[in-house]
Amino acid sequence: MAVNGASTVPTLRSYAGKIVTIERFILDQQQSYPDATGALTSILYDICLAAKIIASKTTRAGLADILGSAGKENVQGETVQKLDEYADQIIFKLNDHTGRLAVMASEEHEGIIPIPAHFPVGPYVLLYDPLDGSSNIDVNVSIGTIFAIYRRKTVEGRGTLEDCLQKGGDIVAAGYVIYGSSTMLVYSTGQGVHGFTLDPTIGEFFLSHPNIRIPDKPKFYSVNQGYEQFWSEGVKRYTEWLQGKDKTAKPLSLRYIGSLVADFHRNLLTGGVYYYPADSKDPDQSTGKLRLVYECAPMAFLAEQAGGAASTGTERILDLQPSALHQRVPIFVGNTGLVEKAQEFIKELD
Ligand code: AHM
Ligand code: MG
User: Fold this and answer.
1) In terms of residue numbers, what domain contains 75?
2) What CATH number is associated with residue 128?
3) Same domain flag for 36 and 102
4) Which ligand is closest to the CA of 277, given by its number?
5) 88-120 pLDDT, tens per residue?
């Protein structure tokens, strides 16, 4: 506290017109928690560092054909590593020895990733999708990293599967990095959603999008409409409603990149809904394509923090208790009104 009794914790307003690095911002946010040990702050720092390293690689991905493509030998006769495997290892290596995590899990791995026995463990759990949408790399389309941090549930020893299978509602911090025309890191610790843009010339993230709120007036709907024939009646009719076919609402434009982070990011800034419903084309996707713990829960957390909503069509995503690491669920995420409308159609018709 300052001498006059006023709080010294910076408010968002105090950042207006100032140049603020992500380090400064995360540290300032930590001040709102008098009991904070700094462990969460340090994990977020390490994710920023991983983002910079991955960004530097993704911007060189087009050189693979010249210098050697993934899985093949480059001109020096070395095998070039696939970018998603590289991203996976960078995040793991930056976090395995710090004593802040009890266990990790990654979309690239079948099971949990234990902290190596010769390193200490800590109070947090990190779940991540190191490079989501990686099939887009070859065509130079934006891709992303998604992460969620939880407190461990078990009380001692190495972390377990139970620590990784927590409800999204128990997320302590979540975010994503988008590798696009610029690299941005967007995250929330439950105090709103904040976006930072990387200046690649100096390797620093700067606060560029404080307190992101999904605009009230949505612009876009985003879905892989090529699969429409495999959807339920409720989802088909909902889509027609979004297109304004029943004349009760203005039509929204369709935008679909096929890269969750990029589609989500656009709709977060412009308003809209992204959905990947269950479909009947593939038995594996009878409950949707996207994974609950790596993709849906972190995005749902961010959406709610930005004033939006996320649902499976019948249940709030953040209320779901995961039963397996790679569990898939349908998702509708974006403006609250649009997500609620999806629920209405599904309840009435499915
Ligand atoms: P991935 O985890 O194998 O990269 O797949 C997830 C991606 C998402 O980024 C994207 O929203 C979705 O798959 C696109 O799927 P589809 O090509 O079926 O539309
Ligand atoms: Mg993924």
Assistant:
1) 12-211
2) 3.30.540.10
3) yes
4) 1
5) 999 999 999 999 999 999 999 999 999 999 999
Nearest-ligand number for the alpha carbon of 261: 1
Cβ 207 vs Cβ 15: under 8 Å: yes
Q: List, for residues 233-286, the tens digit of each pLDDT value.
A: 999 999 999 999 988 889 999 999 999 999 999 999 999 999 999 999 887 778
Number of domains in the chain: 2
Q: 15 is written with which tokens?
A: 């950042």
Residue 2 forms part of a structural domain = no
- Ligand 1 pocket residues where CB is under 6 Å: 132-134, 224, 258-260, 263, 289
Token duo for residue 263: 């589609």
Give pLDDT tens digits for 165-203: 999 999 999 999 999 999 999 999 999 999 999 999 999
Query: Which CATH number is 321's domain given?
Result: 3.40.190.80
Asked if 132 contacts 259 with a C-beta cutoff of 8 angstroms, the reply is yes
The best mutation among 264, 276, 280 to test binding of ligand 1, ranked by most ligand atoms within 8 Å of the C-beta, falls on 276
- Amino acid making up residue 87: A
Q: Which atom of ligand 1 is nearest to the CA of 263?
A: 11
Structure tokens at 262: 């990029």
